[in-house]
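USER:
Try writing one entry.

ASSISTANT:
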Amino acid sequence: MNEMTSNFRLLHTMIRVMDMDRSIDFYTRILGMKLLRRQDYEMGRFTLSFVGYGDEESDTVIELTHNWDQIEPYDMGNAFGHLAIAVPDAYAVCKALEKEGVSVPRPAGPMKGGQRVIAFIDDPDGYKIELVQRD
């Protein structure tokens, strides 16, 4: 790391969402994050909400962006992969999320060619979230 970048820090990842309230509910109630801030930008016709497990001064968070005039679901494309969240027991978390109606396209289990237990869930807009089991 050079002198210029020694104080750099990853702040947030932004994803576009169709229904801000539904997304906030998913990330806060279902995944246990906190709503850190939410603001409407009337002139730009969009809303930004920031959610995370810690505050923005010390932790990386997720920026949810809702463009008010967006009618069609966003194209996920093939470049974005997923968000990852550390969990203590991926099997138990998947079971609890399924009871909440969360899509679990890849249930908990060892990753191919490895020992680490992972799972994948979908958020309300279809973004993939990897659950990585960590003790």
Observations:
- The helical segments are 20-30, 90-99.
- The chain is about 15% helix and 35% strand.
- The mean pLDDT is 95.
- The two ends are 30 Å apart (CA to CA).
